[in-house]
Amino acid sequence: MTPADLQHFLHNLIAQDLHLSVMIWGAPGIGKSSIVAQVADTHQFPLIDVRLSQLAPTDLRGLPVAENGVSRWYPPEFLPIEGAGILFLDELNLAPPIMQGMAQQLILDRKVGSYEVPDGWFIWAAGNRKEDRAAIFDMPTPLANRFLHLEVRVDFESFKRFAFSGRIHEQVLAFLAFRTELLHKMDTVRPAWPSPRSWEMASRLHRAGLSVTPAVGEAAGAEFATFVRLYETLPDLDAIIRGDGEHLAVPTEASARYATVIGLVVRAENATQGYHAFAWLSEQAGAEWIQLFATDLIRAFRQRGLLGELAHLAQKDVRLQQAMRTYMGLVGR
């Protein structure tokens, strides 16, 4: 499933109050942990992130304390004792077998020692796969059988949804729209390589005027630097969204067109600006570029709560009405 599919699935588990344990599988850096955090934030749930690989058995079960001649196990302070939330066992299969055995009792019986997980808490976990060459241990069959298993793959459309929230620099998003295969390209030899997680770090570096190479590696960093220089040749995007772009032409090179389209989507802060960009592209570009722009604009405006404003403006323009009808189905989720 895609990251967007995973997010939708986890939201539904909470909405339907299905306290089924979930194991999320996927390559490093694709956003498994971030999605769980976003779901928790959406539902205003506390999130407790437990890394079993960093714990000893007594850290999870607690310490024995003698009371009236009998040992009682005092649970650790990081485990929840009331309310509702998400207990997240991240990197579960990095933990050695003895700790996975402790987790098995926690997941199956919702208790360990004298500690019991409160009824309102969901128990979810995540880990990498063998083919990711992570230093993982095999998951015991009895433990695996206690989970729902969800495998997440890299998906650029899901990354765009995240990017339109404003967390990813416009030029990083435009570059990845042109070189989608570099969204995730694991390198088992070099420590820095492209992934959604490392591109988020690269975006922060780029905003600060620093090289992205330490985050995504030399090859991807060099390509991105070349792409950034391309931005100097783009038409004035701010003039276009103001409605002053009639004298400007769409670039002929594909990479520059991707940069132009993504740049217009990111910079359009209201329906009027989005309409100006749409009208300009309608006069200047082919159908595939108009489709790309309209799909991304509708998706971005939906996330920002501006889709109704755009629909109202579309009533005044037949072309925009047609685009809305044609492309709404493409971004329905």
Structural class: alpha/beta
Which stretches are poorly predicted, pLDDT < 50 over at least 5 residues?
Answer: 329-333
Order of SSEs: HEHEHEEEHEEEHEHHHHHHHHHHH
SS element count, helices: 16
**What is the helix content?**
40-55%
Q: What portion of the residues fall into strands of 2 or more residues? A: 5-15%
Overall body shape:
elongated
> How are the strands ordered across the major sheet?
2-5-8-1-9
Q: Estimate nothing, just give the exact number of structural domains.
A: 2
Average pLDDT rating? 83
Largest sheet descriptor: 5 strands, parallel
Secondary-structure topology with pairs:
Blueprint: H1 3-15, E1 22-26, H2 32-42, E2 47-50, H3 57-61, E3 63-67, E4 70-74, E5 84-89, H4 97-109, E6 111-112, E7 115-116, E8 120-127, H5 141-144, E9 148-152, H6 156-167, H7 170-178, H8 196-207, H9 213-216, H10 218-230, H11 237-242, H12 254-267, H13 271-284, H14 287-304, H15 307-314, H16 318-327
Parallel strand pairs: 1-8, 1-9, 2-5, 5-8
Antiparallel strand pairs: 3-4, 6-7
